[in-house]
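Changelog-adjacent note: as of this version, every example in the card shows the full chain rather than a window. The one below runs 453 residues end to end.
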Amino acid sequence: MIKFLRALKEKTDWRTLLLHSSWSLTLTSGFSYFFGLVRDRIFAHSFGLSRTLDIYNASFVLPDLLQSLFIGTALSAAFVPIFTRQYDKDKQLGYQYADQVLTLGVFLIAGIGVICALILPQVAHWLVPGFTGDDLTQYIKLTRIMLFSPILFAISMTYGRVLISVREFFWWGLSPALYNIGIILGAIFLYPIFGMPGMVLGTLFGALLHLVVRLLPLRKKKYQFRTRPDFHFSPEIKETIKLALPKMLQYGMWHFMLVSFTSITSALPEGSVAAYNYARNFQSLPVSLLGIAIAMAVYPTLSHDAGKGNYKKFKADFRRERFRCIFYTVLAAIGLAALSKPIIGLLLGGGEFGASDIKLLSGVLAVYCISVPLESLLHMYHRAYYSLLNTLIPSLMHAFTILLIILMATYLSKTIGVYAIPAAFSAGLALHITVLATVFPILMKKRESSIAP
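Full-length structure tokens:
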């Protein structure tokens, strides 16, 4: 906050500060988490830690896997460095590349989504082994409806990465808030009419809002929206696929971890899936407001630094933002852990959410807080590696770490229940960051020596 106030004094351009800096990401993340809290409070009062909420949360896992594995990989690992390189040459070259990524992503997601909807009844018992009978039938129905969401997110995420590349952070960050508003409207107005399918329809409406708000600022950037798909297999698309393949392994393993967490908790006492998801939502608040905001804001800067071969500035920018990330997230983690029980009691307590639910959730959250600075730092290192067009090292390390996390969570769940999830997650992240931090200076020396006279 002190630094923010200092920035207000130093910067005369408030528009730049609030729309194009890391503070705009923090601000919009705050909006998103405010509405996320409203969403969670409605869910808590209406359902408590119940099987109904377990099923709803589980229905997100497969659609999220599709959108992250087949579009998020290319966008997070390769899009910004390649787009900025093309955009710096000619704006229209950058936009043409975005259209090609969009076409490939949408058609791929739609095709795979149809296949998943058809085979879901045959694999559902493996995805959620704790669900049987009507619970399993409801899970299949909700997941099939949710499979429309990756198509909307594929479009929104592509346009979002264009906004990130040109530092339009406010509009990029505002989308998740509107997504949560859609979910809230579904819970209030559609659930009483359609039951749980109404909740999912509200989620789809939120995904549509997520997309629409990102279309508006692109018009000011003279982005030409194409009415026809662009199937041109350009050198940039080939480079994107090459860079995305290692990242696909990383994202695939990450969502395999989420599927495994859901599978593990579905076999634990009722409400364990919901408790894990609630704790994750609270834990991700400081990660998003601080860690991801700082990492995403510095990402285009690092990409430009690396693209121009200015590695001295690259290292200085990274060290400065890494320190900010660690400092803020450690303080946030300590505060959240210390106040976990009163915060949960105040925000979620009441209705169907009783004292035993508060006790369980606050304990899980306290353990999860260990991972707040670790996950934030992981985002910083990943963006630094991606800026150097290196996706292989973080992806391989990520895959190994996740296998270790899943094994630890499975083993520990037999003795400590749902607490095994945050404990294993934190231990795995600590190992992951240690390896990335050790290898990174070596990678930097190789890049610097490659341009030495």
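Structural remarks: Residues 253 and 403 are 8 Å apart (CA to CA).
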